Amino acid sequence: MTTVTSPLAGRAIGLAAVPDPVFSGAMVGPGTAIDPLREPSEAVSPVDGIVVSLHPHAFVVVDSEGHGVLTHLGIDTVQLNGEGFELLVNKGDTVTRGQGIVRWDPVAVEAAGKSPVCPVVALEATADSLSDVIEDGDVKVGDTLFGWQ
């Protein structure tokens, strides 16, 4: 089983509360979402694995079981063209849980008119393969968000 931990500190709100139908409808996959603390921070890897996709606003880490976890930093943030985001690793790097992947500032994202809410999604998973999904309450970096069978 893969344990997926929070890449950010903030408040868990669940995917249904994400202001984007692709995420709220779980079309990308099941998971949860974090409304981040409004301070500059590093989004960290939610699992040990390999960075298979890396953009300023989003990254995917695949673990040894082949489970890919997408962390999406804000909604529609691709439109910011990387402004306010700093990559800390490279695509193809092997990373450990808790390692910084992208440095960003949710305040700047909000100032640009975008939602800073961050979906954390189990790619190509079924809803019933996830367990103990955290959809409310405060979370710290490294707190368990869900298990993936």
UniProtKB/TrEMBL annotation:
UniProt domain PTS EIIA type-1: residue ranges: 20-124
Keywords: Kinase, Phosphotransferase system, Sugar transport, Transferase, Transport
Highest taxon listed in the record's lineage: Bacteria
Keyword Transmembrane helix annotated: no
Pfam families from the UniProt entry: PTS_EIIA_1
InterPro entries per record: PTS_EIIA_1_perm (IPR001127), PTS_EIIA_component (IPR050890)
UniProt cross-references to PANTHER family, sorted A to Z: PTS SYSTEM GLUCOSE-SPECIFIC EIIA COMPONENT
Protein's name in the database: PTS glucose transporter subunit IIA
Biological source species: Streptomyces poriferorum
Lineage: Bacteria, Bacillati, Actinomycetota, Actinomycetes, Kitasatosporales
